[in-house]
Write the structure tokens for this entry.
Amino acid sequence: MTENFCKLSRAYETLCDTQARRTYDAQWVHIRHYQSTQREEERRQAEKAAAERKKAAEEFLNHQAQQRKLQERLQPLEKLRSQHEGSIFETNRVIRRLAAELKRIQDLDEEELRKQNERNSWWTYFTSPVYGKAQESEGEKQKREIERLQRLATKSIKGFELQQMEAKLKIFENALKDTAQKIVAERTKHETERQAQRAKEEQARKEADATRRAYEQMLRDRLAKLAVEQARLRREQAREEELRAAKEAREAEEARERARVAREAELTQRRERARASREEATREAQVRAARRTKEARMRTQPGTCQHKAFWPKIDGRHVCSKCHKKQNLFAFQCPGCNIIACAPCRQDARNEKGGFTRNKDRQYWEDLG
């Protein structure tokens, strides 16, 4: 509130002071330009802040969209990798089971071979009568042979299954490796695109900074020019004030001289008008005297005027001396005897010999008497 009141006080002081007001009017163009420049700068700063916020929001949304796209591209690969890992785990479990079964069959074969070697050794041959060991029957031999053949078939089948599982495991491992490579390639591609986008944004930011610095330098140069122009304007204004003061002094002196000359001319004109008025009054008095003399002569000799001269028109309301009719607009007056008549009576008077007769104009002479 106090600041606004101070502004109002300064404005009122400027308006009251003629010199300060003239100075302010001279500087108003530059002040308005400076204010418009400040408003333009504030508007640009606000627009820049809004653009930066919008750009940050757009970058965030773009990053989110890129992440979603990356997840959408990686989701099938991740799912495929999970399937391959599950297949590898299941295949390894089957391989371990087959290997355990083959090892068990291999142990049984080795045990059977050891027993066979014991039975066919010389020590057994020589000690069998001593210890009384029973000889193996044909049924047992056949049974042992059948078990051996079964183990051999089982071993062959399990070995084939194991080879198949190992080949399948290699296929799954290769597929998993390819899937992992595809995932790495997708992530690398995404990272490369992101780095390229960041480089592009950094380049755009550098260009924007360069543009902003150039604009700020332009504003500084403009403000410097404005300060120089204001200083020049103040100097010119001071010179103009000096010239104006000198001109006002000369004009005041010239005005006083003109007033003196005007007073003298007015006095001369007054004297001339007074002299002309006196002369006009003298002439009018002489004319009135001559007219009275002429009218007196016409009263004594009314029939002497022939009414042949030019009758001037007189405006206003008049009464015709012949027909005694009222003329509302104008009438005519004889310059010789000063009688007033309407247009028809004037023509009759000019055509009649000797003018108006005494009998016809009795009323006129009575009016004049």
Remarks:
- Strands lie at 313-315, 318-319, 326-327, 330-333, 340-341.
